[in-house]
């Protein structure tokens, strides 16, 4: 009996590596600390009522941001472990197996569990406020999306200590990811973790499309929407067309592994290249999904801190929408080496190059927005200025990669690694940081310390170039991705060491950001105006943080940059637009179902990972029960009375 | 009377559709249309996979050898008829006839259930004849595509029953009306998908 338990435990838990034991201890201690703190301060009820069951988009947005910053920490640790292993030749810090697991989880976490939720966090925090709405179209579904992401991410992360991490690369190409080559459970953690959070992403896409199309303030025509709203619309349209492909692809891989089917196997008529085509039909649009909102953020920031209207509004809209369309016709450029022939490669090379055109249009629009503007340079604007040269270089190396014959040389080398990190860090990460700094006062009601923020900016920016510029050269020198070690004879030592130093500089930059947040919480500098930057769009017209119903009366919009124009009118001595009378506000009730249903998904996923039907089936039954319970519940909303609105507005210093 | 949302609370302001209070039922209907787009992509991906893999039989049995068209044609007509009866259910609802509505929904669900029964019988028979999901890439693609459609129909059945119970409890309100419209839309959609399954998998398979 005891031996049985021992056998089980040694299979179930990851053993043998001191780094993992250290992590085990850290995880257990953190959990004990969290539980103790919540119990000691009697915060369980607060956690459940105010956060877990909340359907308020602002709170869901904050939870997304916190979760994604934690994931940024984990993905960043993975990156630094890799860079340490590669710092000098023949390093024996990580074993090759461990290295494989780490580059896999680094990629998955950074794209799916860091970039995506940080993006959804910004959608939630900003979109309803920016379009003058009181919530998203489906608040319940919004909460469900968050908890599906959360439990999907937990399922993926738990593989680190239980069962073993996936180690077949971030896109898990078969046949390596098939049962024949990856018999462990890591690959199943990969499938279920991404599948569960992917369902959430799909629903968020639907939710925000309907929110933007249907819930804008009266008078806000499509061509009067703020540019961030446009970018979210284009990103969500891409989500709803791309994510179903991911769902199917992962399901097929699972059916292969679980039921012994032959979609992507090497024998019995399977075709591994089918997987690679399908996964990139999702994967390529996916990178545009994450970068389009960053473009929107930069457009807002460029206009606000230049005190000018965004240059080329229509061309910007056209650029965003054409990128989301073209993103579906470039996938094969990820494997020009597949051997699909000159015609196919030429087609995908040209579509890839075409995308550079709308992107170039955007860069010029931002530059012309700043041209002859009244510029100021607080942290959000610094990130914007750091982004432009970085993204231009990253974009141009992308054009180099799109040249199919040349790609045979660049393919899977460090040149590629440097390219996509340059667009994903320089574009996406810088963009979301800029957005966080820009909207932070609106979300939390206090400003972040500028001085520490600038330190963080410079560390990130310099660290970035020190880390990734050498990698272009390493790639041209023949260093391929995913190698865990190299010899002294290669001549790659100096550049790799430089790159590692750059990686750690970015790590220090992250620590500065954490310090910045903690410092700003301690020496809180409250934003009493609701409009600390001199903003242009509607979110700046209400108090910071926004009251739970957002707008006491729904604003009326007659032009672009509605709030800026209103301020101009008031400055000229004209009467402000009269506000309609207060009315009771219709709000959705909180619900625990999203949390419980997502937890059931987690149980089902965990059961499938270990092939425990006794666990998977109750999990699925729980999911179905939650859906039916919600369908039969007709008591889901309430009204906020006028008195309460008056009290809330008066407390925020607003006349009503 | 405001019946916005999944709720039965009376609106204290006492009037309908004022500024900022969107018509939630219309919003939900639109969301479902967008969901159907995503479902189209899902089936599109499965069809593409089937088209790529359907000749990869690895020396095993082919669809042309094993498909039995009479059963498949029966399934097709049953599902087409159920689409028609779900339309009749909506017409009854629009007349305000709750009994007719629930009656036609029951007929639709029974037809759906017999479709599923026939499909499962067909699958069992195919497996006995040596064509299981693990036989070859071709059969993997077949079972996954046709099975996903069957799974959709089965989920629709549970959903339809739950809506009938809600109709029994609440009658025809703006909420239940939207739910019936959505399930009927879903049912027609599955019918359209089946027409593609019938054409691409079965007809082109035996021709």
Automatic annotation (TrEMBL), chain A:
PROSITE patterns: COX1 (PS50855). Belongs to the heme-copper respiratory oxidase family. Residues 42-558 form the Cytochrome oxidase subunit I profile domain. Pathway: Energy metabolism; oxidative phosphorylation. The chain crosses the membrane at residues 20-41, 62-81, 101-127, 139-162, 189-210, 230-255, 275-298, 310-332, 344-368, 380-404, 416-440, 452-473, 493-515, 592-610, 616-632. Its main location: membrane. It is a multi-pass membrane protein. One of its GO terms (cellular component) is plasma membrane. It comes from Cohnella endophytica. GO terms for biological process: aerobic respiration; electron transport coupled proton transport; respiratory electron transport chain. This is Quinol oxidase polypeptide I. It catalyses: 2 a quinol + O2 = 2 a quinone + 2 H2O. It holds the Pfam family COX1. One of its GO terms (molecular function) is cytochrome bo3 ubiquinol oxidase activity. Keywords: Cell membrane, Copper, Electron transport, Heme, Hydrogen ion transport, Ion transport, Iron, Membrane, Metal-binding, Respiratory chain, Transmembrane, Transmembrane helix, Transport. It comes from the Bacteria. Its cofactor is Cu cation; ferriheme a. It is found in: Cell membrane. The keyword Metal-binding applies.
From TrEMBL, chain B:
Keywords: Cell membrane, Electron transport, Membrane, Oxidoreductase, Transmembrane, Transmembrane helix, Transport. Signal peptide: none annotated. The chain crosses the membrane at residues 32-53, 73-94, 101-121, 141-165, 185-205. It is found in: Cell membrane. GO terms for cellular component: plasma membrane. PROSITE patterns: COX3. The keyword Heme does not apply. One of its GO terms (molecular function) is cytochrome-c oxidase activity. Residues 30-206 form the Heme-copper oxidase subunit III family profile domain. SUPFAM superfamilies: Cytochrome c oxidase subunit III-like. One of its GO terms (biological process) is aerobic electron transport chain. InterPro entries: Cyt_c/ubiquinol_Oxase_su3, Cyt_c_oxidase-like_su3, Cyt_c_oxidase_su3-like_sf, Cyt_c_oxidase_su3_a-hlx, Cyt_c_ubiqinol_oxidase_su3, Ubiquinol_oxase_su3_dom. It comes from the Bacteria. It holds the Pfam family COX3. It is a multi-pass membrane protein. Belongs to the cytochrome c oxidase subunit 3 family. Heterooctamer of two A chains, two B chains, two C chains and two D chains. PANTHER family: CYTOCHROME BO(3) UBIQUINOL OXIDASE SUBUNIT 3, CYTOCHROME C OXIDASE SUBUNIT III. Cytochrome bo(3) ubiquinol terminal oxidase is the component of the aerobic respiratory chain of E.coli that predominates when cells are grown at high aeration. Has proton pump activity across the membrane in addition to electron transfer, pumping 2 protons/electron. This is Cytochrome bo(3) ubiquinol oxidase subunit 3.
